[in-house]
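Thread: Newbie trying to understand structure tokens

Hi all, I'm a second-year student working on a class project, and my supervisor (Dr. K.) asked me to get a predicted structure for one chain before our next meeting. I've only ever worked with sequences, so writing a 3D structure as a token string is new to me. If someone could post the tokens and maybe explain what I'm looking at, I'd be very grateful. Here's the chain:
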Amino acid sequence: MTGATSWRGLIVGLIGNLLIGVSLYHLIQVGNCGGGYNADCPSSLTPYFIALPVGILTSVAGIFMGGGIVAFCGVFVSIGLGALAAGWFGAGKMGAFPYIFGGLFAFFGLLPLLLGAGLRRIGAGKEAQAMRLVATGGQGVGTVTHVEDTGITINDNPRVTVTMKVEPVDGTAPLERTKTVTVSRVAIPRIGDRFPVWYDREDPSLWAYGVDMEAGAPADVKALFARAARTGTEAPNEPASGPSPLEELQRLNELRKVGAVTDREYDTAKALLLARLAEPPGA
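---
Reply by user tm_fold:
Sure, no problem. This is what the structure looks like when written as tokens:
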């Protein structure tokens, strides 16, 4: 689906939503007509009787043209807002019905959009946290020591609790880290598997391990993936090859500019990198 198609579908869907909302606003204010106690509908309502099904069909077309969840939820929201407006401006002719009817439709129309926005915000926060770990956290190779199934699946993929023994590349003492994650059902971690790990030096709960490496990944990330892919026959504390301190400092500054690293984290990492530059060769 191209971006142009998506926007076209969204616009068509919103036009259909508008027709639905305006039609219901006028029709609900009149109430019951065409039978019973009020057999004659005002001729002025004819355009709205026509516009309502046209709006529904247009909204459906917009959904299939790429309007997606926004156009779909817009149907419910337009029904709700049309009914609420009819109740508000209708001088109480319909009692509480427009408010109850409209409120329910508006609520269930907005709920998926609000939940989606919340999930996107959580996802963005986790991505920023992962970027900070890669930029300023410790590096190591984690070996899986325990895997436990939680019994929960998301989109047919299991959630498991993974425990790893992490050997830092700087030669400090090994760490144990545990995390509950959703993994691919065809790539469940097994005991003995090795992964590159990034961790917060002060908070044991903040750590991440890498599964897939992007082609454009920085040199230090590629080096850590390569280290984890080895069989473990090399010296355990052999330092991983990677970019120079100046290259790392430049990358940190770029991350700070886009907000992935705070000024405080940048200053801390900068001090460590400058200390490395001051070390004599071979130290």
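A couple of things are worth pointing out once you decode it. Strands lie at 138-154, 157-168, 175-182, 194-199, 207-209. The mean pLDDT is 80. Feel free to ask follow-ups in this thread.
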